[in-house]
Every structure is written in C-alpha cells, then in structure tokens.
Design the sequence.
C-alpha cells in the first residue's frame, strides 16, 4: 500500500506501508541504491555528521522522531531507505489501518526524507553524492 504526498507540481514522495507484525506496520521511503556510495564508514560518517546532521542522526539511530535506516525485501527485490514503525489494529487488512494518525506519520517520514535530500543537495559530504540525487527522482 502506498501513501503519496505532493511536494510541488510533478514532484511526489511515495511512502509504502507494510505489515511487519501483529499490531505493527512500517512506513518506508525507498532511496534505491543511493547509499551504495557509503563504502568506508570510518572516513565518510564524520563528514556526513558535519554536513548533513539530520541524515547522520537517522543513520545512527539517534533521530528524535524514530525514523531509521533500513533494508526492505519485497517480491524478491531488496530496497534500501528510511522507515518509521507505527502501531496499527491487530488482525485487520492494511487498508483498514489508514487513519489520520497514519497519514500524519507518513507526512513526518516524507518531510524527514525531504530534509535529508535538501541537506545532501545544499551541502553534500562528497561531490558525487550531489550528482547521485538525480537517481531518486527517476
């Protein structure tokens, strides 16, 4: 199931929603292979911390809103992105779980991803990281 948030004309953030357990779901924004650029964490993470504090907090599990980095497998394909766990009613279809609270959490996740995108665009830790942002919109 997908929640689609309009950022501006012709630009949208897609938040997927998946059941991950009884009474629990995951909201997920796919960043595809963007973070394959992270090859040497000892060297790269200090630069990310300095240039992109929101991204750093999320990647290290210190985000105040509970957004975290994760891998997600669906239909045999591995996806990499950012997630937020949400409580949902037990033993109901995912469509029945959609509430104003879920929309609000989805918007929070979408906004957090936009903030990380903005940090990477305005102050990339490495030049190639800015160039790679085009991949996210294709």
Sequence:
């Amino acid at each position: 199931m997908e929640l689609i948030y309009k950022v501006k004309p012709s630009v949208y953030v897609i938040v997927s929603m998946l059941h991950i357990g009884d009474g629990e779901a995951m909201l997920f924004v796919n960043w595809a292979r963007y973070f394959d650029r992270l090859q040497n964490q000892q060297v790269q993470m200090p630069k990310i911390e300095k240039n992109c504090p929101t991204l750093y907090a999320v990647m290290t599990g210190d985000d105040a809103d509970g957004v975290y980095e994760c891998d997600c497998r669906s239909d045999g394909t591995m996806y990499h992105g950012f997630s937020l766990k949400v409580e949902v009613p037990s033993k109901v279809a995912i469509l029945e779980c959609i509430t104003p609270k879920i929309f609000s959490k989805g918007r929070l996740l979408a906004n957090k991803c936009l903030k990380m995108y903005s940090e990477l665009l305005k102050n990339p830790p490495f030049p190639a990281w800015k160039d790679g942002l085009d991949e996210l919109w294709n």
